[in-house]
Amino acid sequence: xxxxxxxxxxxxxxxxxISILNCDYTNSMFDYFLWYKKYPAEGPTFLISISxxxxxxxDGRFTVFLNKSAKHLSLHIVPSQPGDSAVYFCAASAxxxxxxxxxxxQGTRLTINP
Amino acid sequence: ETGVTQSPTHLIxxxxxxxxxxxxxxxxxNTVSWYxxxxxxxxxxxxxxxxxxxxxxxxxxxxxxxLQFPNYSSELNVNALELDDSALYLCASSTGQRETQYFGPGxxxxxx
Lengths: 114, 112
What we know:
The complex is a heterodimer.
Chain A: E1 4-5, E2 10-14, E3 19-25, E4 32-38, E5 45-51, E6 56-59, E7 62-67, E8 72-77, E9 86-96, E10 99-104, E11 108-113
Parallel strand pairs in A: 2-11
Antiparallel strand pairs in A: 1-3, 3-8, 4-5, 4-9, 6-7, 7-8, 9-10, 9-11
Chain B: E1 5-7, E2 10-13, E3 19-24, E4 31-37, E5 44-50, E6 53-57, E7 64-68, E8 74-78, E9 87-94, E10 102-103, E11 107-111
Parallel strand pairs in B: 2-11
Antiparallel strand pairs in B: 1-3, 3-8, 4-5, 4-9, 5-6, 7-8, 9-10, 9-11
């Protein structure tokens, strides 16, 4: 049962353009959502998060949008830079049994072309 | 400020053996979570430790166990290793049970 899905395994974008990464979830109990970036041989690096009471959060070039009715969130990167090439994971958080459990999607590999 | 560190970076074991992986949390962080990431998948939650107690577990059997020490560092122990245990094991620390989790570089385990 995949509660968090990233349906695009890969995405290729030209440098300077907008990158849009998408994520869908099924569990209405999720109340916090995060995006992580992962380079090979490194652990995931936290990028940006959003609480379920908001629909948008912005941090520099990164903006996360949350559509609760559609159970969908997206990450926008503007403008895209070569250093943004990495695997991006969305994660949804549920606080259950006294622990904050992160449920991750399968990841989307973003390639920024010069 | 030192981030989350994990040791060893790589490990090779044979089926049936036991393994211990270690994690040092980021300075000021009192909560540690462990995840397993199989090839081509997202990380999967194993369990979380807060104040030296396990306070949440994912769908992993009891042969996966852990410890958290008074300095908030942590160990993940896996007994009776199986081939499917081959994965990247990630540790994440946070300032509290509901705070943003920051990940270490991981330990890559290969079970032969």
